Amino acid sequence: MEFRYLGNSGLKISELTYGNWLTHGSQVENDTAAACVRAALDVGISTFDTADVYANTQAETVLGEALKGERRESLEIFTKVYGPTGPKGHNDTGLSRKHITESINGSLKRLQTDYVDLYQAHRYDLETPLEETMQAFADLVRQGKVLYIGVSEWNAQQLRDGAALATELGIQLISNQPEYSLLWRVIEEEVVPASKELGISQIVWSPIAQGVLTGKYKKGQELPAGSRATDQKGGAGSIARWLSDDVLDAVAQLEPVASDLGLTRAQLSLAWVLHNDNVASAIIGASRPEQVESNAAASGVRLDADVVDRIEGIFAGLAETDPAKTQLPAGREV
């Protein structure tokens, strides 16, 4: 496993981050989740990403239990705040001082740790003053509950505004967590250039497009039993957009490119994401330990320019590139 600096900071994180969205506390049993975490540790992954909203706090609980007994200083534990948990009351969402303060205390308890390495604003809050949000984050840094601040799915202007306030407050905003893959490239035009200017790295989620880029879904065939596309708890809805015939044809064409390099399509797709020098880490999830072990082989793979051109040619016209598609909070669109 190789490591990269996160933003303009001294914090190093593993090129692959183990994330537990849609899995821990939901899709897989706790013993399987623990086995996946163990597999991540065994292949050298030191960075773990979760959020309080995942499985309504259960994902944090499962991760905390799975990491219990590990040397804390050898891990980078990330979580997020924004969405509602618990009874979902009127102050149980957003980035107010109240919600941030209460959320970090709950997250630390569930994760069984005194601090998180990175605390991330899960979305941009259009209703809370940004000054209030960043001041609350700064206070958590000074209290030692949080080491660094990050965000998720913020657009370029939001990143600039947040970074300016962070600098004024004497803290570091060092990361953004956007969706990014061969099929979803909306950060490239505006977010990545702004991030490079600001000293912010990307920690990207869904780098293999919810599993579509692995090649497991084939045109004209039934969906594999037990796959994410058949999971009605949430997986099916998020993956449906990429099950069209033209996308599946492109994924099939990716196979000989991967084979020439001695890689699987998943490993090649991860390597392509990591080819972007503004990406510090790609988040991988798993429902089986062997998936972690296989995907870990993508770390350290370096792609020649001609290979990158060949890959991108296959997906030409299929990827979403509109920067306006950077995700907004549900129900709070402008």
UniProtKB/TrEMBL annotation:
Q: Which domain of life is it from?
A: Bacteria
- The chain positions of domain NADP-dependent oxidoreductase read 16-314
Q: What parts of the sequence cross the membrane?
A: none
- For this UniProt record, give its keywords in alphabetical order, as a comma-separated list: NADP, Oxidoreductase
- Keyword NADP among record annotations: yes
Q: Which Pfam families match?
A: Aldo_ket_red
Does the entry feature the keyword NADP, yes or no? yes
> Which family is this protein grouped under?
Belongs to the shaker potassium channel beta subunit family.
**Name of protein:** Aldo/keto reductase
Query: Can you name the source organism?
Result: Frondihabitans sucicola
Instruction: Output the lineage of the source organism.
Output: Bacteria, Bacillati, Actinomycetota, Actinomycetes, Micrococcales
